[in-house]
Amino acid sequence: MSKVKIRDSVRRIEDLRFLTGTGNYIDDVVIGGEVVGVVVRSPYAHAKINGFDATDAEALDGVLAVITGAEWAAQNFGPIPTNSAVKENRDGTPISVPDRPCLASERVRYVGEAVAFVVAETLAIARQAVELVDVDYDPLPAVTHPVKALEPGAPQLHDAIEGNLCVDWELGDKDGTEKAFAAADRIITLELHNNRVTGAPIEPRGAVAYYDDASGTYTIYQSSQNIHANRNQMATILGIDKDNIHHVAPDVGGGFGAKNSVYPEPVITLYATKKVGRPVKWVNDRAESFLSDTHGRSQYSTVEMAVMNDGTFKGLRTTTIGEMGAYCGTVGAFTPTGGSARTQGGPYAFEAMYYSAKAGFTNTAPLDPYRGAGRPEGSFQIERIVELAARELDMDPVELRRKNLIPKDALPLVTSMGLDVDCGDFPTVFEKTLAMTDRAGYEARAAASQAQGKCRGFAIAPYLECTGGMPKEHAVISFDDDGSVSLAIGSHSTGMGHETSLPQILAAQLGIDIERIKFTQADTDATPLGGGHGGSRGMEMGGNAVLQTAGEVIEKGKAIAAHHFECSVDDVEFDDGAYIQPGSNNTMTMDNAINAAQDHSTLPDDLAPGCLDTGSTFERGIISIPNGCHAAEAEVDPETGAVQITGFWVVDDFGTIVNPMLADGQVMGGIGQGLGQALLEQAIYDEESGQLVTGSLIDYALPRAEDMPPMRLDYYEDSPTKKTPLGAKGAGEAGCCGAPPAIVNAVLDALKGHGVTHIEMPLTPEMVWQAVRDA
Amino acid sequence: MPTLSMTVNGEQVSGEVEGRTLLVDFLRENLRLTGTHVGCDTSQCGACVVHVDGVSMKSCTMLALHAQGTEVATIEGVANGDTLHPMQEAFRENHGLQCGFCTPGMVMTALALVKDNPDPTDAEVRHGLEGNLCRCTGYQNIVHAILDGAKAMREGAANEGES
Predict the structure, then answer these.
(1) Are residues A485 and A603 both part of a single domain?
(2) Do A313 and A380 share a domain, yes or no?
(3) Cβ neighbours of residue A649 under 8 Å, at least 6 residues apart?
(4) CB contacts < 8 Å between A and B, how many?
(5) Best interface-test mutation with A: which of B135, B139, B147, B148 has the largest number of A CBs within 10 A?
(6) Domain range spanning residue A39?
(7) Interface of B with A in 86-125 (CB under 8 A)
(8) C-alpha dist (Å) from residue A166 to A110, A258, A301, A334
(9) Hey, are the CB atoms on B141 and A665 less than 8 Å from each other?
(10) Is residue A149 part of a domain?
(11) Residue A78: CATH number of its domain
(12) Does A583 fall in a domain?
């Protein structure tokens, strides 16, 4: 048994399960008697559906049902809802949101779109039956490039949406930016592409569901990050009361945004289980994951910076074309608009900034948040244009950044984008990062690289981002007869370690042993609401919900202590795990108060056993501002284009750090995904056929252990945010914001002597080699 | 259907399988040893790594019938009752796992790697993990865990030798 504090690197409770093979992931869930569902997916990027013939599939031994798009359409279910925070175009008209059925019946708009669902006794039979479902398609011309989709004459995806345009949007100080540009000595301009990538959690998506006839309720286990929201949306689609769906996530093998959205398959699984009267399990294979998981990023931007000859930044203007895919995802138009606009300019001082974006529909899988959801795009834009500005001004990129960082005494401020930056110390974080990078030894390392015919480069990339996701979170603390304490929360770990860090907060507040706490998350029966996972909200929302609820428990317990002390409640205080009556020797530990709360005889007359049980909803006011600084050293072989990142350094300001070991894990994992985007990953659709070319882990390159540099991490902890009681600012997405620009700029610094000023991500050997040849 | 028998985690097991049944499916479906995971369909991810006669194998890439008569070790057999193996302990101590889905394959690969090379370097560990993908950790803590686990195993072997 052990007492823990906030900021202890408490080792993870969930590890005992995961390390011994006793985790319970979606494909491990057993209801009993379940049958298997497999999706029939469109082989065409764009086609008219003339009809379905499932006769041969239905005739196969062991097939229970073939649910076609036609059957689905006949049920008159609702479309998959979109809940974008950006709802209007710049002219005030509503954005264009096309209907997206769970199963297509008239037209398919991307390769992999679900058109039918086979239910069979075994996976092998279901897969065989999938091959026998005859769908009569008339192929149509397709467009898979987001810029080309908005051009005149492009194939049109939705009859009611002119020009494939979903949203046309702006934010910021347009007039002020024009003035800043007019007054500047120079305008630096860069066109860049933020490559299309996908979360690719190692566990594919899946669900297991059953229907109880007697009560008319569904139970569904899903590998989801967002079970309350998904439950509500599934109920809306099916036209049933949300309370008739009990939604639970078992252990979830990674998410990164790809398990946020409500998808067609779990809704179809609910329909299927009721139809066949058996539990139904559906689990995607990897090929289906690439085709049907949401993708992220994919922005083509023109970034313009107005700057004085002495390096002073004046104005920033970004014009972006984003991509929705074939339909709007769950947060739809938000990522290329508000999601990317908010943190424009990073931690630098600008007189004014302006952001403008359009996003349209393409014959590709829908896009939705991927770790960072717009902030990595914004961070990449500012850090690339600053690096180019240094090149064009012939200034040291380190000096140029140092010169323009927002000074500590300028905070708090609200940026042109409306972002409330309350606290932090960007110059100190910058210098602290730089000091870690062994600048003194750099020349010798560069010379050693040169001796081998290679080039070495360095870059530093401060970032500023923000939290997001649902602004409410609920925690329930209850005390059980066996002496255990139950903590249930609506936020959701898909690997971040909340099973440890949230009980850690509760144990630290109450002064009880952490081993005594039983943790539940991701269960719609356990909390009345929950915001799941997304927007780096785990500690900011979940942590604060636990803190607030623990505080309410402590307040309630004062009545028990007062009864015990025979004093007034007002005379009781709580300190370090015990109630005290100042000025007396009276003390009562929380453990004793919890025990006393279980027994009528030790409670005052107006309290009953269970009186300490508390559920409470924490509501965020203003989003928090995580910030920090990344730095990278790269070695490039100009003969082969091969890149190796040889060193990586980070200082983060996440405000209060609850568990440094877990924060480290978030940062390093984010750097891994950032490095993947910078050097390796890209989801590519063939423009002619609309086929996903990168449809397997052979073609889509995830980072491997040898791709990763040694990483050194540190924190700046003198600036916890006062926006929330815990002071945590969010840690999950920071790595994806800082790593891509640090890595790309380090490679470009290495190739400075070759005259290379820009390479589009991912910086594969071929891209680098070509850039060296073209320069 | 052909009958198959083998030793899994020290216990003799048998079952009827189709010719096409993969070893991973036999372990997961027939024996309900669900610690061995499937993360892909092209033998890239390594979440399914087990040991067959002491050699690490991707169990998604081997027919169950090919394992006839072999000794198979899975993640469920690594700990000694409630006591974690030093390699598992090192993964926990170094935060070498997050979502845990790739972890069984990582641990099984690590044990095979250390068996062949009891005192590996950082670079040798990274090279040895080329068949295992992790999307959560950025690998650094996995590499540190394997180096620490190898050290603990060397010290454990030395202590055993002395006693």
Answers:
(1) yes
(2) yes
(3) A433, A436, A437, A630, A631, A632, A711, A712, A713
(4) 179
(5) B135
(6) 31-140+203-253+259-292
(7) 88, 91-93, 95, 97-104, 107, 123, 125
(8) 17, 21, 17, 11
(9) yes
(10) no
(11) 3.90.1170.50
(12) yes
Residues 55-84 of B with CB under 8 A from A: 74-76, 78-79, 84
Of A270, A292, A314, the position where a domain reaches its end is A292
Nearest to B74 among A19, A21, A675 (CB): A21
Contact list, A24 vs chain B (CB under 8 Å): 34
For A198, which residue in chain B has the nearest alpha carbon? B135
Domains located in chain B, CATH noted: 3-77 (3.10.20.30), 86-162 (1.10.150.120)
Residue A578, classed as helix, strand or coil, is: strand
Which pLDDT belongs to residue B163?
A: 59
Q: Which tens digits make up the pLDDT trace of A107-146?
A: 999 999 999 999 999 999 999 999 999 999 999 999 999 9
The answer to whether the CB atoms of B78 and A20 lie below 8 A apart is yes
Query: What is the structure's pLDDT at A595?
Result: 95
Assign A565 to helix, strand or coil.
helix
Instruction: Indicate if A113 and A241 belong to the same structural domain.
Output: yes
**Per-residue confidence (pLDDT) for residue B1, from 0 to 100:** 86
Note the pLDDT of residue A616. 98
The amino acid at residue A767 is: M
Query: Residues A342, A489: one domain?
Result: no
Q: Is A697's CB within 8 Å of B139's CB? A: no
- For residue A599, what pLDDT is reported? 92
CATH of the domain at A544: 3.30.365.10
CB count within 10 Å of CB A498 equals 30
Residue B161 clears pLDDT 80, i.e. is over it: no
Residues A496 and A528 in one domain: yes
How far is residue A379 CA from its own chain's centroid?
Answer: 16
pTM: 0.98
Q: Let me know whether A631 and A590 are in one domain.
A: no
Q: Do residues A607 and A637 share a domain?
A: no
- Chain B residues in contact with A650 by the CB 8 A cut-off are none
Query: The tokens of A563 are what?
Result: 């009864």
Q: How far apart are CA A472 and CA A449, in angstroms?
A: 52
Is A672–B47 a contact, with Cβ atoms under 8 angstroms apart? no
Residues of B in contact with A671 (CB under 8 A): 138
Nearest to A223, CA basis, from A176, A267, A255, A256: A255
Q: For residue A21, list chain B residues with Cβ-Cβ distance below 8 A.
A: 33-36, 74-76, 78, 104
Q: Are A331 and A279 part of one and the same domain?
A: no
- Work out the end-to-end distance of chain B between its first and last CA atoms, rounded to an integer number of angstroms: 50
Looking at the complex, report in whole angstroms how far the Cα of residue B68 sits from the nearest Cα belonging to chain A: 22
CA neighbor of A25 nearest in space, from B36, B90, B145: B36
Reported as a single tens digit per residue, the pLDDT across B61-92 is: 999 999 999 999 999 999 999 999 999 999 99
- pLDDT of B140 reads 98
| ipTM at complex level | 0.98
CA distance A575 to A533: 33
- Alpha carbon of residue A576 to chain centroid: 36
Closest-CA distance of chain B to residue A265, Å: 18
- Model pLDDT, residue A275: 98
**Regions of chain A with pLDDT less than 70:** 1
Domain count, chain A: 3
Say if the Cβ atoms of A254 and B135 lie within 8 Å: yes
Contact B92 A706 (CB under 8 A): no
